[in-house]
Records
---
Amino acid sequence: MPILKPKIRGFICTTSHPDGCAAHVQEQIDYVKSQPALQNAPKKVLVIGSSTGYGLASRIVPAFGGGAATMGVFFEKEGTEAKPGSPGWYNSVAFEEKAKAEGLYARSFNGDAFSNEMKEQVIAAIKEDLGQVDMVVYSLASPRRTDPTDGQTYRSVLKPTGDTYTQHTLNTDKGTVEEVSIESATEQEIADTVKVMGGEDWKMWIDAMQEAGVLADNFQTVAYSYIGPEITWAVYTDGTIGRAKEHLEQTAAAMNDQFGEKTALVSVNKALVTQASSAIPVVPLYISILYKIMKEKGNHEGTIEQIQRLFTDHYCSADGPKLDEKGRIRIDDWEMEEDVQAAVLKVWESISTEKLASETDFAGYQKEFLKLFGFGLEGIDYDAETETLRPLPN
Ligand code: NAD
């Protein structure tokens, strides 16, 4: 059995720690349990993209806060005897073990959510075990998608759609502030990013489930988006990914015409360290600055706190989800408060490698990043050999 240490390559860590991942899941469960139980929570929830980041939190909150039965879909790698699998695999194993230990129904599917086969498999399982689901969370973040209707594989890019964009960025490997210039995407790259990260697949899931009769009357579905500050707009909101998120919102509107108001919503979430966000240029530097300011203000949240608030303040509140003028849920409200953004901008304007330690929470960023892979958690013996073969419980 191997001894597992972090091996960081650019913005990913190529190793993970099964017990650390389980401890990370437990931390999130403990947080949910420390909060008042959810009232009127959905009881049967499907989470697509349930193994890490926002999707994992979206599985933990209704399960451990509301007693929901959950199904999860993800694309992860199981470990071998010699090598660890991906953290999302171990998170999912830990989630299922902990859910089942408390008598909660949990079933997971590892494979390509974009495929027809996965949709058929999940629908069959819902029919078999749950009959119907009352909530579908769509939380995929993927660099590619094979569209089952034409068999073509599309790749998403993170680029501006206007002029070449030059901005500060953080080399998270070296701990240096650098300048990055990103050239504008081609029309093809924009269209391909919309294909991967837009709403097409979300709607394919909902249509397939509707046709199969596995959606409860008054079901609800939510997908996640991001807006953030102007300094990141060129590469995010106004960039290729922003176009995809625009398509997500249009898809929600189309589904609401079909199924009724507030059935399908986009929730705009806070910028947080996840495997997906660490791949976006500029964003890790923004997050490092933001974390320091929000921690000092006392309103910093991680994915679990964000999703807890999504349920308590929106899905489980007596008047249901509260929406902005564009019909979106805003749990990025604390991030976007004027004083927070003004403070971020002030640091941003003169940030340099020398000021990284004193004016940002890069240390917190690094800690959070390692935790995504199960490293740096208390109570774990990182010098011990660890079993890397961890099957999902039956
Ligand atoms: P993440 O990388 O932590 O999670 C992605 C999930 O998608 C994982 O469960 C992964 O297994 C799954 N997945 C990827 N490809 C798949 C496939 N082909 N089939 C099945 N599962 C697949 O990402 P995240 O940051 O939690 O992002 C989730 C959503 O939240 C995205 O829509 C993202 O844009 C949005 N969001 C993220 C942030 C942020 O700062 N991280 C902020 C706001 C919104």
Note: The two ends are 23 Å apart (CA to CA).
---
Amino acid sequence: MKIGNLNHVAIAVPDLGAARDLYRDQFGAEVSEFVPMPEQGVTTVFVTLGNTKIELLEALGEKSPIANFIERNPNGGIHHVCYEVDNIMDARDQLKADGARILGDGEPRVGAHGKKILFLHPKDFYGTLIELEEV
Ligand code: CO
């Protein structure tokens, strides 16, 4: 496989409204409305940059993975990075063959942008949670 562009960097925040205001008002960035994604346990604000995106993530609901992250990192922090790939099944099969662990059931699901995504285990990638998105 060969990774493509950086699609986005996701930052978990304790207060999405404050984070959205900061990116809009202090950085002058283009920010989206609040996008709730209950099945993923997050509310997202998309920040559009010239060459990539930032996704601001806030916990939504009881079993949100972001809630645990904020418990460990109360001020927020970088949650994951997302790289683009041409063919997510080929990428997955090769990474698995190389011994990398895929999170969940190992099958791609449809992410926030309507594209197929997978998450790779951070312990196999220098402590970084990596999302792959098929483009
Ligand atoms: Co993401």
Note: The mean pLDDT is 95.
